[in-house]
Amino acid sequence: MCRTALVLAMVLSAGPVRAADPPTASFTRADGWVNFTLERNGAPVVGARVTVLTGARVWASGETGPAGGGTFPLPVGRGDCQVVFNLGLGPSAPVPLTFSADGTVTPPRAPVLGAAECCQPPERTPPPPPSDRSAPVVPWHLRLAGAGAIAVLGSVCLVVVWCRARRPTRNYPQHGNTK
């Protein structure tokens, strides 16, 4: 009884279990380039795929380096872009960036939300094989070619039979009949 009370007291005093914090991206601008760092719980995220979009076009792409960072050129003629991170579980929600004339990037720090902080996708099991393997599957184009060949050959046979039926019969003299 005392053990149960002690375990219950320890569980209640521990507080709620927190999920892992989502990664955070930091952005700065220098000499026509945008520098970024991707971190999770203070540690750099290495090898994450990064895609920079301007509108619907890919402006730049790559991976985070050993310090969890990287750079990409400032989009020419635009004051904004979107950055998408992929930490191996699918792309994150785009992080919209706005560049001002005084050289600042808004937001300077943003959480990376989406598939990056989500749980593992369920394993997909392959579909079971078909139960009846005795009947071969004939592709539709071969079936169509076969039906066309049968139709053509059938028509040729009908024309030959019709022509022979219309041919006049010749009366040849029979043996013994010499008239």
Return the CATH architecture of the domain at 20-117. Sandwich
Q: Based on DSSP secondary structure assignment, what is the total number of beta strands?
A: 10
Largest sheet geometry: 5 strands, antiparallel
Strand content: 25-35%
Radius of gyration: 39 Å
The succession of helices and strands, N to C, reads HEEEEEEEEEEH
The average pLDDT is: 78
Question: What is the molecular shape?
Answer: elongated
Multimeric state: single chain
- Level-1 CATH class name of the domain at 20-117: Mainly Beta
- The rounded distance between the terminal residues' Cα atoms is 134 Å
| DSSP helix fraction | 10-25%
Helix count, per DSSP? 2
State the low-pLDDT regions, or none.
5-9, 116-120
Q: What is CATH's topology name of the domain at 20-117?
A: Immunoglobulin-like
* Helix-strand category: alpha+beta
